[in-house]
């Protein structure tokens, strides 16, 4: 399925592979994020039940210059876990960047395949499928999602990212302006030059100037350079989805949203402490609550979601399993413990500050989470420090209830002990 706009998109990503990446930077950093962080995949997609020893076959569909594929392949390699990451994209220019990044890291667990999401080559079935920043550029997002679900193995899951409208305030206005002064029929290099000239004279009243959360149009290293500017403001096809629209798309594809990342951002209650308002939110379903939070916060420029097949059981991590091993996604326990202020952890999401309440024993528990000790072993260690067993059990449950929704306290994939 293709059209004239699709041809323009293909030309864009050949001329300006996205996102802008320099393979030499692999020696300095690993680009990490959601979806497809290995700890998230283990916890949210497989409910921390899929053994780490079982090979993971993952497809990164619309892999671009390689962020998702490199992250997942490197995390598998660091953990000594078996598996294969298949990078799929139709851009030869993006492939060259991604391959150079993989070579810089010495990764041998990535396979590169050129092809389209809408006309998948023969690449087999996958335990996990990543589609980040692609569906909103397709001529038919539903056809794309259905195509990807067709290569999902039983019990597998997906991680997707699509644009969201409220946090992109100003973007679509400027896209309208640039279509008039830099028509899509002109070559990408000429359009970039014209867009830069417009940006130098952008009126103070332009909404994009008032939106601090959108930076892709800024020069490197603050923003995305020319590829980022083109993708944000000159892209020939760019649609966005509210939570209800995304839910409808997913349902029409025979899938369901199992999680929106991060869950706390889609909870309206931290934004509405008034008891009368909370009485009303309590009667809402997941999608309605998430839609309310999205509209109230106004700062969500993307939605990240993990999906499962609608007919399959939703994955749930078992926090009652004493042999489960908790892990912290980002930072270590001591650092998180130091961040506790007045019984809460302050966390900021795109300018929105949320105080996450934590229990009295939070610091003692956090400092003992090392990715090796089980829940039972951590509880024993805290008890040996002088805490009563009942208090330890209560506070471990409360800490999980506080930090799992911020996507920071998860359970790891089971390992042989």
UniProtKB/TrEMBL annotation:
<protein>
    <submittedName>
        <fullName>SAM-dependent methyltransferase</fullName>
    </submittedName>
</protein>
<dbReference type="InterPro" id="IPR029063">
    <property type="entry name" value="SAM-dependent_MTases_sf"/>
</dbReference>
<dbReference type="GO" id="GO:0008168">
    <property type="term" value="F:methyltransferase activity"/>
</dbReference>
<feature type="domain" description="Methyltransferase type 12">
    <location>
        <begin position="61"/>
        <end position="156"/>
    </location>
</feature>
<dbReference type="InterPro" id="IPR013217">
    <property type="entry name" value="Methyltransf_12"/>
</dbReference>
<keyword id="KW-0489">Methyltransferase</keyword>
<dbReference type="Pfam" id="PF08242">
    <property type="entry name" value="Methyltransf_12"/>
</dbReference>
<dbReference type="GO" id="GO:0032259">
    <property type="term" value="P:methylation"/>
</dbReference>
<keyword id="KW-0808">Transferase</keyword>
């Amino acid at each position: 399925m293709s059209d004239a706009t699709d041809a323009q998109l293909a030309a864009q990503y050949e001329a300006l592979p996205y996102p802008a990446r320099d393979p030499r930077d692999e020696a300095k950093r690993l680009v990490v994020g959601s979806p497809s962080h290995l700890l998230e995949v283990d916890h949210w997609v497989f409910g921390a039940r899929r053994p780490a020893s079982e090979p993971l076959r993952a497809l990164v569909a619309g892999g671009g210059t390689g962020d998702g594929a490199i992250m997942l392949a490197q995390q598998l390699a660091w953990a000594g876990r078996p598996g294969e990451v298949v990078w799929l994209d139709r851009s030869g220019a993006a492939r060259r960047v991604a391959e150079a990044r993989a070579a810089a890291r010495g990764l041998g667990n990535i396979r590169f395949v050129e092809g389209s999401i809408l006309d998948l080559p023969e690449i087999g079935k996958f335990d996990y499928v990543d589609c980040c920043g692609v569906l909103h550029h397709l001529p038919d997002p539903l056809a794309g999602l259905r195509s990807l679900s067709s290569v999902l193995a039983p019990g597998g899951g997906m991680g997707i990212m699509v644009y969201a409208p409220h946090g992109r305030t100003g973007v679509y206005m400027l896209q309208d302006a640039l279509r008039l002064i830099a028509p899509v029929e002109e070559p990408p290099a000429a359009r970039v030059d014209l867009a830069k000239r417009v940006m130098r004279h952008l009126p103070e009243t332009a909404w994009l100037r008032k939106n601090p959360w959108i930076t892709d149009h800024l020069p490197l290293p603050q923003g995305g350079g020319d590829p980022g500017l083109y993708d944000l403001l000159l892209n020939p096809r760019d649609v966005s989805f509210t939570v209800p629209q995304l839910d409808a798309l997913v349902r029409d594809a025979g899938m369901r949203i199992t999680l929106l990342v991060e869950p706390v951002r889609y909870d309206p209650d931290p934004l509405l402490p008034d008891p009368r308002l909370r009485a009303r939110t309590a009667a809402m379903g997941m999608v309605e609550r998430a839609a309310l939070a999205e509209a109230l916060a106004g700062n969500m420029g993307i939605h990240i979601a993990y999906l499962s097949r609608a007919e399959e059981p939703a994955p749930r991590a078992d926090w009652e399993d004493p042999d489960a091993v908790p892990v912290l996604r980002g930072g270590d326990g001591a650092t998180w413990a130091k961040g506790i202020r007045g019984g809460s952890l302050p966390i900021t999401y795109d300018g929105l500050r949320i105080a996450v309440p934590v229990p009295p024993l939070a610091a003692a528990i956090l400092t003992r989470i090392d990715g090796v000790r089980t829940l039972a072993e951590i509880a024993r260690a805290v008890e040996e420090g002088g805490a009563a067993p009942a208090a330890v059990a209560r506070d471990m449950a409360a800490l999980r209830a506080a930090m799992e929704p911020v996507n920071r306290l998860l359970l790891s994939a089971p390992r042989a002990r």
